[in-house]
Specification:
This protein has 297 residues and is α+β, with helices and mostly antiparallel strands. The protein has two domains: 72 residues, Phosphorylase Kinase, domain 1 (2-Layer Sandwich), CATH 3.30.200.20; 165 residues, no CATH class. The chain is built from ten helices and nine strands. Strands 1-2-3-4 form a four-stranded antiparallel β-sheet, covered by helices on one side. Strands 5-6-9 form a three-stranded antiparallel β-sheet. Helix 3 packs parallel to helix 7, helix 4 runs antiparallel to helix 5 and helix 5 packs parallel to helix 9. The longest helix has 31 residues. The protein is globular, with a radius of gyration of 22 Å.
């Protein structure tokens, strides 16, 4: 069904459409609305309403429709440093209101451990093969040279993360319960609006799981934009993480990214540079004393 037909089916009369990224802003005689592809999970939305979590836009679509139609919210011009703190506070509230505990078997945590361990092994082999190929060249490209100068740091990060993973495994291998919450599962500033209230938008990836994964997603999206330590402290003022949850979070954010060389040389340099910057920034966050004496190549 086309957007104009959807608008008519909701009893609205469109006056104009404007595309902005993945959304369409629709101007109607009754005000502005947002259209976005992606089916929502009605069970999660109903659960949030039952828990009095009202910090979402009003959805006009029914449960079986494969799109989202919401009221338009005019975002206030707020400094991003304040906005990210407000987002963290709202995330803590979301997790607090939806906390429950789920019985699990031993295979659950073993599966997570195996996946993370296999990923670290794969990253080590991938970068070993890549650097072996690069070092056979008489002349390295700028991106290849950047990777070669920092390859030891990548190896050290993988080794350190393996130690974190083994430590976490000893803490959780006998556990039979996991704390779970509703996860927005795509936290970033673009999905947080402040107007008459605070709002989280773009709920099409929402699911239930460990609170760690919302924080991990936020770190992925903004690791180089903000200092994460005060953000985590602010979150834990309202919703303290358990020891094993914090250990898992640190493992996830410490994983080096897999960089391929299929882009332009400029983009390759950017991607590698950001990965190395993130490695150093994460190391400084997790072990500040160690990082004081470490300099980037």
């Amino acid at each position: 069904m086309k957007i104009n037909e959807i608008i008519k089916s909701k009893g609205l009369k469109a006056r104009g459409y404007r595309k902005k990224g993945k959304i369409t802003i629709i101007d109607t005689v009754d005000g502005k609305y947002i259209y976005k592809e992606g089916k929502l999970n009605p069970q999660i939305l109903n659960y949030l309403k039952s828990r009095s979590f009202d910090y979402m836009p009003s959805f006009l679509n029914s449960e079986n429709e494969t799109f989202q139609l919401t009221n338009y919210i005019e975002d206030l011009d707020i400094p991003k440093e304040q906005k990210i703190l407000d987002l963290v506070r709202l995330t803590a509230l979301l997790h607090s209101k939806t906390t429950h505990y789920k019985e699990i078997d031993l295979d659950y945590y073993e599966g997570i451990y195996d996946d993370l361990d296999n990923n670290l092994n794969y990253l080590y082999l991938y970068y070993t093969d890549l650097i072996t190929l690069i070092e056979t060249k008489v002349y390295m490209s700028p991106s290849e040279g950047l990777l070669a100068r920092n390859i030891t740091k990548i190896y050290d990060t993988i080794d350190e993360n393996k130690k974190r993973l083994d430590k976490w495994h000893t803490h959780i291998k006998e556990k039979r319960k996991q704390r779970q919450v509703v996860l927005h599962n795509n936290l970033k500033l673009d999905h947080f609006l402040e107007a008459d209230s605070s709002y989280l938008i773009s709920w099409d990836k929402a699911k239930v799981g460990s609170p760690v994964f919302d924080l991990y997603k936020l770190y992925q999206n903004h690791a180089l934009d903000f200092d994460f330590e005060p953000l985590l402290n602010e979150y834990e003022r309202s919703y303290p993480l358990m020891t094993e949850e914090k250990e898992l979070l640190f493992i996830l954010i410490s994983q080096p990214e897999l960089i391929n060389f299929n882009n332009s040389e400029y983009q390759n340099c950017q991607n590698i540079g950001k990965m190395i910057d993130k490695i150093y920034k994460t190391e400084m966050f997790l072990s500040p004393e160690k990082s004081k004496n470490t300099e980037k190549e």
